[in-house]
Design goal:
The chain is of the alpha/beta class. It has 18 helices and eleven strands.
Length: 423
């Protein structure tokens, strides 16, 4: 049955590829594509470009690599000067909506057939849509899992959860982290990737809390679930469960701590697995379910592609965006980068994977569905970058400077209110 499903899916990929590739142009045209990219992502992008140029011999796509840390700021400057590239990559932190609000990217709706976006994850499309218009197409997504050191778990007599129903509560997770720290060679119970407030928000929603009211107008962070989530994550530091420098602004690299045996567990995205494979013995680590609370929440990362207002060939640029995000290319990009695809048909296709097939299926089918719809709506707000900065700054103060839980929640509420008022 799996083979039959894959053959049907493969045929569909070929048909869609033929349909989406081959825009006709009589003249030689060059378009530019700007994106930040690690080594695997660059490989994936260049493969997409090569396939597109093979299908469109008169088109040349020039890849321009940007520094990830300030890509949005650099693009803002170029958009203001009227010198932006044709196609840009935008992160699932409100980048595309930010560009759209400022008039920097053009609607793709005129280039999309009716129902074109139905196959994409709804939460991903939230982040590509502004005022009812589609401004980008989702390329990849990712989410967090709980990686663990098998030897340390055996040493401490701990068995990882085997199902979502067995996931550890927040209190159980802290207790297990303490056991691992005290009864193994690890110095810390765990390390975690917490580079911004967006990632912390997933823990809030998993705990049954909300950042904003249902109508997205009023901060809810000062409610009990918000206070409890701040207190829980603050206890990671006051109880010595994580390295002091493993924070929003800290310099510790969480995957390094895990790979070097300094932490027994690691909260990180699926894309970290090649690093673990390169720096740890085969079979020395596994991945399981995140700690769970009373709600639904999962870290929601990813990126999409959009066409800028400065493109002199918007029809070709839009065609390239459609081509890059068609099922065939999402399969290939996912295989190379170990990001998750954004089309439901690709996620459900039982595609054979050369690298980490079981783990990738686990992230796609077990963890990705835990994404909270309201969290995606908030990330799609034009003022989310300011909201994200507020959460990041205040949670960092709670973690590393002893700012009280109540003061942290109040400061976040005030910062979010101010950000909302600017829209």
């Amino acid at each position: 049955m799996r083979t039959k499903r894959f053959l049907i899916f493969a045929l569909l990929l070929v048909m869609l590829s033929l349909l989406s590739a081959g825009i006709v142009t009589a003249q030689n045209v060059e378009i530019s594509f700007a994106a930040w990219a690690g080594a695997a992502e660059e490989e994936g992008f260049r493969a997409i470009i090569e396939r597109y140029q093979a299908a469109n011999p008169n088109v040349t796509v020039n890849l321009e690599l940007l520094p990830a840390a300030n890509a949005v700021e650099l693009l803002d400057v170029r958009l203001a000067a009227g010198q932006a590239p044709d196609v840009v990559r935008g992160g699932f932190r409100g980048d595309v909506v930010h560009f759209a609000q400022g008039g920097g990217v053009i609607p793709l709706t005129p280039y999309l057939e009716e129902g074109y976006t139905d196959d994409f994850l709804p939460s991903a499309m939230e982040l590509m849509t502004y005022q009812g218009e589609v401004y980008g197409l989702p390329l990849n997504t990712d989410t967090f899992g709980l990686f663990y050191n098998r030897a340390y778990f055996e040493q401490a007599g701990i068995t990882p959860p085997a199902s979502m129903e067995e996931c550890w509560t927040y209190e159980e997770f802290n207790s297990i982290a303490q056991q691992l720290r005290d009864n193994t060679d690890a110095e810390y119970g765990f390390s975690h990737l917490a580079t911004n407030g967006k990632r912390w928000m997933a823990l809030l929603y998993e705990n049954g809390g909300q950042l904003l009211s249902d109508d997205l107008t009023t901060p809810m962070i000062t409610e009990l679930a918000g206070l409890d989530t701040i207190a829980w994550t603050q206890s990671w530091y006051t109880d010595g469960l994580v390295a002091p420098g493993n924070s929003m602004r800290g310099q510790e690299v969480p995957e390094n701590l895990f790979a070097n045996g300094l932490s027994a567990m690691l909260i990180h995205g699926n894309y970290v697995m090649p690093y673990l494979a390169d720096n740890m013995d085969e079979g020395s680590w596994g991945v399981t379910y995140m700690p769970c609370g009373e709600g639904q929440g999962a870290d929601f990362g990813g990126t999409g592609l959009a066409v800028t207002k400065d493109s002199q060939n918007p029809d070709i640029a839009a065609d390239f965006v459609k081509f890059a995000t068609n099922p065939e290319n999402l399969v290939e990009f996912s295989a190379v980068t170990l990001f998750l695809p954004t089309r439901q048909s690709v996620i459900e296709a039982d595609i054979p994977r050369a690298n980490f097939p079981d783990e990738m299926d686990f992230f796609a089918t077990e963890l990705l569905p835990e994404i909270n719809g309201q969290m995606a709506q908030i990330m799609a707000l034009p003022n989310f970058p300011a909201i994200n900065r507020t959460i990041t700054d205040e949670i960092e103060l709670a973690w590393t400077s002893g700012q009280s839980v109540e003061d942290t929640a109040q400061a976040i509420a005030e910062g979010v209110t101010a950000a909302l008022a600017e829209s």
